[in-house]
Amino acid sequence: MLFAVLLMAKTSFSDDWICHEESSVRVGGAYGTINSCGIGEAKNEPQARILAFKNAKAEFNQICQTSVDCHGHNVTVEPARTECESSGDGYKCYRLIRFHIQQIHNEQVAENDTYQIIKKKPHQQTMAESAMSYANEIAARYAAGDL
Asked: How far is CA 146 from CA 29, 131, 133, in A?
């Protein structure tokens, strides 16, 4: 009896699972989360899982490239559910990945990382400042007509 109840619960849960119904869903509006699904089919389960992951990522990338609140922003990836089933001569896997879009833009992180690296290595900061000073001097001489 308990086995029948568990089997029905699993079947019910699987039948209305997001990756059986849609390829992706946005949750939380701007800078929220995109739940992205991928399907992978292969002769063996590990390969089908890998393909499902790649397809979920490709689905997300297509959405992100066209969305102003995603394109160029940092994204945190949260692995979620994977479901695989034998399909005759191979396996079919459904993969859900949650992509959390951060408000910080990639360039801001790059600038902060560069600042942190220079801050840790003062001699590089001195070299960078010297190069910038020289570049400014050349620009000024050019503007004055000395070059």
From this structure: 56, 20, 17
